[in-house]
Amino acid sequence: MKANSNKMKSTTMIRKLFLAVLLLSLFISCSDGDITIQSISFNEIGIESCTQTTATTLLFKINDTESLALQLPEGLLKNSVSEQTIQSSIPNQTTLNYRIFSEGISASYYCSVLPEIGVNVVKDANATAGTVFINTSLSEDGNNFKHEIQLSGVSFIVQDGKRITDVNLNDFGVFTTPK
Length: 179
Hints:
Layout: H1 2-29, E1 39-41, E2 48-49, E3 58-63, E4 66-71, E5 86-90, E6 95-101, H2 108-111, E7 121-138, E8 144-158, E9 163-164, E10 166-168, E11 171-178
Parallel strand pairs: 1-10
Antiparallel strand pairs: 2-3, 3-4, 4-6, 5-7, 6-7, 7-8, 8-9, 8-11
């Protein structure tokens, strides 16, 4: 009887130890609510801007609570067919910014004089490397210029210093300006 009692105490002790380890591992693995950026991909989202002229320097893409903003130097976009690919380096000449917001945003976030009220930036990442390539051609109907914008070698750093490595942003898109 005494051996049976010791065996039950041993089994109970193992169960308690197992439960304690399980709870500790769950506690350690639970997220504290921080948003971790795994990857960035906006290839399927269309380019937006506040104006449709070559004077435009800010192009952006919005995917509900995320945005990708490309700030080009003045005069980079031209209404003429490019003989060769135009290049601009990130971050020296061009800036590229990725943001996650507390709620969905619209183009007015970038275009209005006063920013939207109640929208908070949850995560903010600036590109620290990369190149912008622009090829300009005349549209088929001859009424517009199509500026095809490509990105290469883009690397982002988040506020806390973490690097975002899974960046799928090769095709930024086509921005059209009237002739």
